[in-house]
User: Fold these one by one.
Assistant:
Number 1:
Amino acid sequence: MVAPQAGHVANMIGLRPRRPGVDPEGGSGDEKLAGPVHAVEGTAGRAAAATSTEVQALCGEWVQIVGVEDLPDDAGLCPVCQYGD
Ligand SMILES: [Zn+2]
């Protein structure tokens, strides 16, 4: 087992928001988050979560940080984020 390096922060997870006009359903106007799940570098992810802003995932997609409890059950992990590191 390798001890975590000083300053290492675990990656965060994010989902890409569906913006009004992009979602073909039209919908209620609520901003919905859509899979797949993206991985976000920990430090940047924490900062984005604290300010509720979007942050760039490892694959380059702009996402919002979400908690594990907010993940859709059917959301898969972005393959670029999964295998890119
Ligand atoms: Zn990704």
Note: DSSP finds two helices and four strands in the chain.
Number 2:
Amino acid sequence: MSIEIKIVIIGDFCVGKSAFLKRILTGDYEKRYIPTIGAEVYKISFWTNRGNIDFCVWVMAGQDKLSFLSEKYYAGAQGGMIMFDVTSKMTYKDVDKWYRDLIRVCENIPIVLIGNKVDVKDRKVDTEMISCHRRYNMQYFEVSVKYKFQIEKPFLWVCRKILGDPFLSFISQVDGNDFGVQRCFGGIRDMNFFNFQNGIDREQEIMKR
Ligand SMILES: Nc1nc2c(ncn2[C@@H]2O[C@H](COP(=O)(O)OP(=O)(O)OP(=O)(O)O)[C@@H](O)[C@H]2O)c(=O)[nH]1
Ligand SMILES: [Mg+2]
């Protein structure tokens, strides 16, 4: 059995969305901040106790002003992840804005709220301050992409929700990494990684492939 699930990952700039995906896909940690332009699309395949599950993950640019494009990017998403940075109050405040933007297009999808960078000692958003996930019925996870802390949890939760199977689990593979992520997609440097630099024309061209 093989299933493909489209996920969108949104949130303010520099919260760690691209680093999160690269960490899961390749195991590498990206120290540099290289702003995403438009969106990046990653294909990730997980081995699970229910067979192979392929994710098509759309990571949006946090500082993209081309909001008319976001509808196109969100279209057909079956799950969402909203990331903020626990060292920046502004990124937590903006969760509201991202949530509303997403449900405008995808009304009833499971959404995970991710608080990243919990490794930083001087955090500005404490766990007790985080409540908006209850209001919006989101699942909340604290993660550290840097230290690989809980980074597979958002995917596992979304997978379980979409497939309606609370017992679904990831299975480690000899040639994969800790979470059963297969390396068969070849990482972000090959054709499964697109950067939509030129907006919609480029997007349509890619979609035809
Ligand atoms: N301390 C710490 N830094 C992190 C962590 N995750 C990511 N970073 C750093 O945060 C910076 C921003 O990461 P990106 O993944 O490029 O941010 P982004 O959310 O994709 O930003 P945009 O593409 O502009 O929307 C990088 O310098 C990362 O190394 C983490 O868990 N802990
Ligand atoms: Mg990025």
Note: Residues 44 and 57 are 7 Å apart (CA to CA).
